[in-house]
Structure of Signal transduction histidine-protein kinase/phosphatase MprB:
Amino acid sequence: MRWALVKVSLAVTAMVVVAFAVPLGLVIREMARDRAFAGAEREAAAVAPALSITTDRAQLERVVASAGSGTAMAVHLPAAGGEQPLDIGRRRASDEDVAAVRKLGRASTSTVPGGSALLQPVALSSGEIAVVEVFVPESAVTNGVGTAWAVLAAVGAALVVGSVAVADRLGVRMVRPAQRLVEGAHELGEGKLGARVPEEGPTELRLAAVAFNSMADQVVQLLANERELAADLSHRLRTPLTVLRLNAASLGDGPAAEQTRAAVEQLEREVDTIIRTARDAKPQTAAAGPGAGCDAAEVVRERMGFWSALAEDEGRKWRVAGADRPVRIPVARADLAAGLDALLGNVFRHTPEGTAFAVDVHNGEDAVIVLVSDAGPGIADPEAAMARGRGSGTDGSTGLGLDIVRRLAESTGGDVRIGRSVLGGTEVRIWIQLDGRDRSPRRRGHRGSVRRRRTGRGALSFNRSRSLP
């Protein structure tokens, strides 16, 4: 916008300068020409009285010498009394031009080498017509024209430069508030809630800045209210958790009791984390940067070790594949553990006892895929299950667990898909992008090391090297 204003100002000023400077330059040239010929006419008029009195050569030569400037003047006398025509001074005009002026009886100009000649007719006492020739050099015609044109050019350039400078200042005054508004919008979009815009500039931009600041304040207030609500709702869980912890303490010894007490302790820690995060207003984000993140294989082994005890109690067969070697991913350990617990909890919550399940880890060149599959009845509407707050449609399903997993994957540029597993039930595929470059939901069929195939039911699945025992 700033440069557009400068260009418009430059074009308009240049047009105005050209419109005035060119005609003015032509007028100056004509004025210089008129001045030169007016001087020549005055010199010719100074000789006319002498010609009306005498035609003596000596006297006329003295008159011409005193009236003319050097060799610039000449007098052409006609033939009289059988004598030849007499020319006094240097002749430059042609005989035809002189004869034409003598015949017509009025002054005229003719072009001669080096300039122009003014031919002025003068009546003699004898009734004949003499012609006074005054030479006007080209330098006299253009005297001062170059200087005047240079001054005009300088003035025009100064006007153009001045208009551009003024337009630039005006452009800055208009563009800078707009740029600050754009920067503030970007900062607010990036999560910098303290971004505000100075309320200055033109009236429209000032009103836009006022509206933006009001919107930002309202966003901050709404987020603060949501954080307080989340903290209050989480705090309400403390009472039933306390009762649950006391009941777990009275279970005595044994693997099941220890597992129950460990689950209660973990649940208390998660509730405390939610309350602190909501109070501190520090949203959890995926880890990033060299060396950040966690070992996905280690987290999978740890969480499967936790859920395996409950699987044995319910008679479920389970399997882990691809977690025997380190697999680094740009995701925080706690976030990945929470996502796996959400998916495995869904398996235990929404499938009958004895239903088998598996967790596979596929390590590719630019992505890591974690598959959680089961042999349950499956999900009738995968798209609806991915919608936050809807779930699979069964009792106790809210869809928040899948939403946690989706946000975890999308924070790296990946995504989450739900399909039919080779076990016959649901398969949740978590695609974790390693380089974080692909931020758009596109088809990923070109990924090199992770191969996909279609099952007999037409659902999306992946090759596996192991099967359930």
User: Anything to note?
Assistant: Residues 282-290, 437-469 have pLDDT under 50 and may be disordered. The radius of gyration is 51 Å.
